[in-house]
Design goal:
Blueprint (H helix, E strand, L loop, with lengths): L1 E12 L2 E12 L3 E6 L5 H9 L6 E6 L2 E2 L5 H7 L1 E4 L11 H7 L11 H7 L16 H13 L5 E5 L7 H16 L3 E5 L3 H7 L2 E6 L2 E7 L5 H9 L21
The chain binds adenosine-5'-triphosphate (ATP).
């Protein structure tokens, strides 16, 4: 049975339909990557699943329960945790305090301070440091750890690698295995196509608010994803799409 079901979702920013008629499902234990150009609607979709943005139409279900009308904190209690783009840590609080803030809405489960540090060894020794003084990668580990502290069933990661050095991205992605072994299902937005195809079991590609590709990562070629990414199967290639944000894998 699917853990997350999204049916005919429409999410608007004023008159802009940022997410249009989006439907997909994520099975328990799956890693699903959402890719797409800037402005395709990926973050809006993630925020809608987390309850940070109420959809205009459609339905979001978690393990068969309709959570569409639930507010964000109720969805955390139900098992959905979002690591937002930009991390949004409390810069003046310590790492430990940032992590413990989340435990107020903690569900029962395997994640606690020790488990987070074990999953992100780079946080070892940093618990008493001010979050605002950490490097970008360390802050991202705290942001993911904070979400894990709620013991989510579904972890939503929005562009966790943005602006980080490749070696740091490798370190963060190395921790994904530990996260999955803790029973957490992951839906992630990832701009680096190579990494998305490498880590995910399924890839969803969004274009102008719609899902234009939803395929098992092992059954889709990089070219097919790039075509969907830029809408090349349609009549014209938009000029703005030539400013490619698809990052090439190292040769
Ligand atoms: N708070 C907002 N108010 C108005 N428009 C918004 C808001 N947030 C996003 N948008 C618009 O909605 C569309 C989808 O944006 P969204 O951030 O979801 O896309 P994205 O695929 O995550 O892009 P990016 O990779 O740049 O973050 C864009 O046209 C964007 O300008």
């Amino acid at each position: 049975m699917s853990l997350l079901t999204v049916e005919n979702l429409e999410v608007r920013h004023g008159l802009l339909r940022a997410v249009r008629d989006v439907s997909f499902a994520v099975d328990e234990g799956e890693v699903v990557a959402v890719v797409g150009a800037n402005g395709a609607g990926k973050s809006t979709l993630m925020r809608a699943v987390a309850g940070a943005h109420q959809p205009a139409e459609g339905r979001i279900g978690l393990d068969g329960v309709d959570v569409t009308a639930q507010r964000a904190h109720d969805r955390v209690a139900a098992g959905i945790a979002l690591v937002p783009e930009g991390r949004r840590l409390f810069a003046d609080l310590t790492v430990e305090e940032n992590l413990l803030v989340a435990s107020r809405v903690r569900r029962p489960g395997p994640w606690d301070l020790a488990a987070v540090v074990a999953a992100f060894p780079l946080l070892d020794g940093l618990l008493k440091r001010r979050a605002g003084n950490l490097s970008g990668g360390e802050q991202q580990a705290v942001a993911i750890g904070r979400a894990l502290m709620t013991n989510p069933r579904l972890l939503l990661l929005d562009e966790v690698s943005l602006g980080l050095a490749p070696v740091m991205v490798d370190t963060l992605y190395d921790s994904l295995g530990t996260i999955l072994s803790g029973g957490t299902t992951v839906l992630l937005v990832e701009q680096d196509l190579g990494r998305a195809l490498g880590v995910a079991r399924r890839v969803l590609c969004m274009l102008e608010g719609r899902v234009v590709l939803d395929e098992p990562a092992g059954e889709v070629t990089r070219e097919q994803v790039v075509e969907a990414y830029f809408g090349l199967s349609r009549a014209a290639v938009p000029d703005r799409a030539t400013a490619a944000t698809v990052q090439e894998e190292p040769a």
